[in-house]
Amino acid sequence: MINYFRIRLLIVLGWITIPTAFAQDQVLTINDSYELARRNYPLIKQFELIRKTEDFSVENAAKGYLPQVSVLGQATYQSAVTEFKLPIAIPGAEFPSISKDQYKVYAEVNQTIYDGGAVRTQIESQKQSALVEAQRVEVEVYKLNERVNQLFFGVLMLDEQLKQNELLKKDIDLGIRKIQAFIDNGTAFKSNGNTLKAELLKTQQRAIELASNRKAYLDMLGLLIGQDLAESTVLAKPETLSLTGEISRPELRLLDYQRQNLDIQDQLLKVKNRPKLNFFFQGGYGRPALNILNNGFDPYYMTGVRLNWSLSGLYTAKNNRALIANNRESIQVQQALFLYNTNLSLKQQNADLIKLQKLLESDDEIIALRESVKTTAAAQLENGVINTNDYLREVNAEDQARLNRILHEIQLLMSNYNVRTTRGQNIDQ
Questions:
Q1: What's the predicted TM-score (pTM) here?
Q2: Which CATH architecture is the domain 27-67+121-266+329-423 placed in?
Q3: Which residues pair with 104 in a beta bridge?
Q4: Does an H or E element contain 278, and which?
């Protein structure tokens, strides 16, 4: 018992230190986000409620094995009673008359000897129903992964755009320094420098806008995972996952559990139509008791075994089995529809992956060419061959090429994780 409480204490302390450690490190992975979002989701509490409901239901069903006690009473008045009449009179022989008002109060105890498996099957039914309800919740909780993907990779996109914006500022600063030398020497107009300075202010405005959007995304992600995420929080860029394996979504497991539940319902139909054998003991007090010749109040008891075989269930057994078969077919249709839609989504996502991979390959070539042109333009600007507008055009062209690569790279990574989420496989970094 002491060891048990020690283990519980360690678990509690571990849960307490997780948020603290996260707050100190300020590094968040996508797997952390999945787990924290799951813990923070209000619906997760439903699992505990389902478990408690299962415990209560199973316990109640198991009590069917216990002796069943009932107390009954009745008072009746009947129009006629048994009378004793002899063909000849016998001197000294007197038969009592039975009252037309009769009373009875008794208790009966029934103990199941054989119930055809009714209690056992009912327990299995309660457990399976709990599995179905828990899996319904799991289906809803699993949808959090898609929301985590959108917010997590949205922040990564903004991080990369902020980095690129800083590179753009450096290129413009370089142009300002070079043109300023011409202005100081009187070989260039001041307006040329002002053009670059205006562009620099635009990059600073863009930095403010990107940082604001990043904070908004972080706030939404923090709300989703139940953590206060500071602006300094670093989101670890996840690795590309291998996309193999079968579809293993919670929805499919839910359909399997529903199918198993129908099997148990079919078993309950069979149990319902089986004979039942009980031991019983009945004790009471009434007038008349077991001896109908005694018109007074007397206690009595009787005991024995009782066979009960209700055949009324046979009337509806065929239709009930047909309903179960119909529900099985309905589940099969739902499964086929789900796999159909999921495979369509996977086909589209895989097509996006191939497209983005090809775009990335050409992005690197475009960036290399644009960087070469920009470097040449910087030298030409320094030598007075081109003006500031020509230089800005080449700088912005390279910046746009790099932004396109950032967009394609993050989209490829996000699509990679979306495919894994659509497949329903565990995500391991």
A1: 0.78
A2: Up-down Bundle (1.20)
A3: 74, 286
A4: strand 276-287
